Queue: 4 jobs
Job 1
Amino acid sequence: MGDSGAMIVRAEDYSHLSERGRSLVARFRGRIVELASEDRPASLLEVGCGQGWLTKELAAGMPEARIAGIDIREDAVEFARGLVPGVGFSVAPGEELPFEDGSFDIIVCSEVLEHVDDPSVVLAEMDRVGTGHLVVSVPHEPWFWGANLARGKYLRTFGNCPGHIHHWTKSGLTRLLRGRYEQVTVEGSFPWLLADVRR
């Protein structure tokens, strides 16, 4: 607690990483923005926006678009509101998105599907509120584990981050998405996978 009595919230902006790690994050996020802005969407939803660091880059890359973000963590959403004031943020789970059908031209879902009980339920909700274009990213296993081990993180769980209940390979993510979408392109941005999918 500071003098004002406000709780200090640690910024989850990857600033604690090495220069190489920050470079990987910048390349990864830059590619997400490229894919999301390719068709110049008028509206975008980020599912699992966390503190809004990626949202900030999406908003900068698409200044004309109406952008919204949701996350289940109230403290993260409060932080995001201060970081990107022009964006409409809400507290909500990916399984129950508080929007009308077809509300968004594109949906970005970055580093979420490894955390949720049933990824297909979240995908179905994103399908409902979107118009069929999605950009999805997940940690690329086993490379993500290896990168954690190399920097001495999560040694007791062999590099697996707490809260990761699904572990995605390129073929596994492709299979999941091809069960729902006609066009699926999956690429790597070490140590993540990026998928551009369309109905």
Job 2
Amino acid sequence: MKDAVYGMHKRLLKNFLSLQKGKDMGRILAIDYGQKRTGLAVSDELKLIATALGTVPTMEVMPYLKHYISENSVECFVVGEPKQMDNSPSQSARFIEPFVKQLMKAFPGTRLERMDERFTSLIASRAILESGLKKMARRDKSLVDTVSATLILQSFMESERIKKEQKNS
């Protein structure tokens, strides 16, 4: 436990120092794109904590993102990539690909990454169930989308952290 806390503080210090040099100032914004609703989550500037932004009706997601980015520095989008167990694209991928192209066109200077989202809805549903929310609150499907986006973002940040550690060792 003590080593884990030490490691976390060491990463915080490294991130703080890189911020002081003017590097990596933007946030990461995760998108769990759906046909009806789109879940959104964002990192802090140090890219340590994923925070839910909520859900937006899919028809309103681009105007929402344009407004959000006009007020916040976002350096990277992470869009959930739905896959089958055999690693092939799921049926919902055909709805997401046009959105990804639209996103790249609308924000050409912003990095875009994809993240496997295979089990995020299941994990989100279980987390909500175990959270102790009342039955009516658990029925809110937008909550699953929001938690899923947060899980996608947290997974992406963790994978980036591991890549950096492997590169530096």
Job 3
Amino acid sequence: MIQSWWHACDALPPARWMKILFITTGAWLGLLIGFTIITTIDMSRLGVDHTIVEIVQAQAVIMIPWLAILPTVAITRARQALMGTPIAIALSELVLLAGLAILAIYLHIIFVYAPFLGAPPARVLEQIPLANWVWDPVMIAMTALLGDAYARSIRQRSHSSQTTRHRIVLRAGNQEDILDIGDIVAVSAQGNYVAFISSDREWLQRTTLSELVVQLTQMDFIHIHRSHLVSGPEIASCARERGRIARVSLRTGHTFPVSARGAELLEAYLASKTSPRLAARAQA
């Protein structure tokens, strides 16, 4: 679990952490209101003197640990789902986290809640129904499901943005070809023309590569050579010579030379797209 939290920042940037914190705090307030209503009804039915303020205070104090437990469990599960943590490791982390959470609740009752009530801790623990201790793991499991659902929503938004495809119109005389940039695997300069290369054909357009570099490098293309840009996701392998990348092969079978400057850009791109854990394993 320590390793998982070490990499949590990569999977969940601060903005997403804050959104989970906001959601779980809202859930905590909802639970506080719900438990307050239930306790009020029970005390009225039993004829116990009480005030709403006293009940709210008591419920808020006993629920303090959940202000930390809810976001911790949700963030942990969301991080697991986004990073593709193996199910055995994920379950082990969540079980360990649940055990620590229940221990924290137990200690909170002894050292905070019992003194708040002015009652001996042993007596307070005796009066807590067994169902309450069963309910705690259920709440933790429900919070983990919330984190899982949050991760799915992130993946869906990411997939939607990735599938929103940019298009380019290539004109040759009276002919116009409309291409999805996602179908282009490379763009190469050929004299006064530029060739847009897909997996099975090429389109020539009278323009210069320099006019396209800025736009295409914002769409996951790497300027590997003064005459070539390639689609980063299409790179299948790299060949090295004299300590640097000298040639790339694409999934389509196309190969292109890589200049010294292009090798630097390509190295930076590959480093940004490689999981730190996978890179460490590869080096090992």
Job 4
Amino acid sequence: MNLGTSKDIYNRKGRLVYKGWRLDYKKFYQYLKDKYRADKVFYFIGYIRKNERLYKELNSYGYSLVFKPTTRDGIGKPKGNVDAELVLYASSLEYDNYDKSVIVSGDGDFYCLLKFLKKRKKLLKIIVPNKKSASSLLADFEECKVFLEREKEKLSK
């Protein structure tokens, strides 16, 4: 989500097609509570010890943090792919604890989860950070998609 909102996106000709912005996580938490009546908001994130302050901050806003150990890629950049954790929580560990889900991602990797939740009438919305990076696999869920960039004025820092 962080990269989905904050990263500038350029087309093949090098022209800027999406200007990134900084999401205010406190405002976003409240937005989810107010607009979608979220009882519990999970935040799936790779754990990096030096980011303890960020984790405490997110926790203080109300997020339930789910950590994944991180590894390093070839250039030393931390990697903490949390896709499997989100799928496990939504389809099994927390499945009986909610009526409807709001998934925040534009990633096509969640296609099977979204299909599973939609079939069982447990998918309320898919919040996509920005239209330019949304996977084409999400086309099957048009009626559920909401683009976060439309809330930029409300939710930016």
